[in-house]
Amino acid sequence: MTIRFSHHSADILVKKNAQTVLRDLGVRNLSDLESYSMTWADIGKSVNTLRSTASGLIEKITDGVPESRQSEIENTFNVLMEAVNDLEGERDYRNSIGNRDPREHDGTIPPPIGRPDGTAKGVDDGSYSYFGERVRTEEDEILSKLLGPEDRMTTWAQAASPDPYRGLSLGGYLRSMIVGAKTDTERRALAEGSDSAGGYTVPTTLSSQLIDKMRAASVVNAAGARMVPLTSDDHVIARLATDPVPAWRTENSAVTESEPTFDSVPLQPKSLAVLTKISFELMEDSVNLQTELPRIMSVALAKELDRVALIGSGTAPEPRGVANTVGIGTTAHDDAISSYIPLVRARTGILSANAGPVSAIIMHPRDEGAIAEMVDTNGNPLIMPRVLEPIPVLTTTALPIDGGVGTNESSVIVGNFRHLLIGMRTNITVTVLREHFAGNMQYGLLAYMRADVAVSQPGAFHTITGVQG
Q: Lowest-confidence range among 9-18, 287-296, 338-347, 439-448?
């Protein structure tokens, strides 16, 4: 395994901060993981284990954690994600040679995924770049800033501009809006961020913290959706609608022309708001409110963003989600799921559109439970086909289960979610509502952000509709 940290430092970080992942992977050190000798199913399971552990680590970075400890956790996160990259590189390598079986170690090291030229992320001093896939077309500034699931908006924001409020936490800033500033930094941030309507524009680095918390709670982010930090109100990303077709030719004959067709993907941020009410007593007495306020707001925003990314109608002001995008594959199942056949066919449709690999299957917890309970004619649990084993199955209650004629139908969404783009403005505005809820002795925090959703390749998605409970 090729970890871009030194083997020694990587193994120490993992043993100190993610010991359980070694037990789950069945190795003493992370550097002992030999991807070339692993079965195809074990590679998939290991990728899921590493991703899950890495996501759990990020949750440990809270406002009260010292900066040195945050840095250590982030470095451990980077090590785990490098391991994911190497395992996925091995998987891509086997696909390229047409053999998914374990192989002899012939000295071939599959290139890390995520870079067109196969070069590793990071720099020679062992540091790791948080920035997502760096597309090599210089004219497209938006795509060069895409953030993958493992990348952090906070790091992007800090790199984009210096932080004038270093040391100020998001929770502390939100609390200071209500009870007043306690430090010079809080006073300066409130003064510079206030507007004439009584709202506060949250500083970019603090807004990014909320966005990162929201992404950590987002299912589409876990599935592989990428984020585009938007710096204006109107962005357009070009996409290839149809591929050019090569043709064989005889000597001295003309080359048959085949023009690719391009269209555009607009990203025009729309407002998403959340209202949080807090009692006077809780504001005065709670010792962890600075942590809880950002968590509550981020979870609420994440669930709605998941919903609109998956099934958004596209009718203003709601963005258009995957299920309502023209050109995706769709199967009208109109029955309860009793076998894996619909999922296999959805995967086949995506691969047939040259839009794979499938990165995730997203469904309501009800449907996941129904699939887990499937049995054969002898009452034994139904064995999942090998082709589905490496694909993570994720659940969200953002998918409704009350549709259809019987008001008990839902949809399952299968896809290569790297082709789902979430455009996000980095500034969040928060208004303190003091009088509106005063009769109940409550404060209101009204936060709104601006985001949009786009599908860069419709063929990368397939919906199974009419799934009955």
A: 287-296
pTM of the model: 0.62
Question: Which H or E run includes 26?
Answer: none
* Phi, psi for 381 (deg, rounded to 5): -55, 135
Give the helix/strand (H/E) hosting 207.
helix 204-216
Distances (CA, A) of 47 to 100, 112, 127, 413: 16, 14, 22, 21
Q: Classify domain 130-243+256-469 by CATH architecture.
A: 2-Layer Sandwich (3.30)
Whole-number Å distance between alpha carbons of 390 and 365: 19
**Measured CA distances, 320 to 76, 403, 416, 439 (Å):** 36, 18, 17, 39
- DSSP β-bridge partners for residue 320: 313
| Token reading at 359 | 């990165």
- Domain chopping of the chain, boundaries: 7-122, 130-243+256-469
Instruction: Tell me the pLDDT tens digit for each residue of 285-299.
Output: 666 666 777 777 888
Q: Quick check: 420 and 414 in contact, CB under 8 A? A: no
**Number of C-beta neighbours around residue 449 at 10 A:** 25
- Residue of 426, 447, 150 whose CA lies nearest to 269: 426
Handedness of CA 126, 130, 135, 140 (dihedral sign): negative
**Residue 109 clears pLDDT 60, i.e. is over it:** no
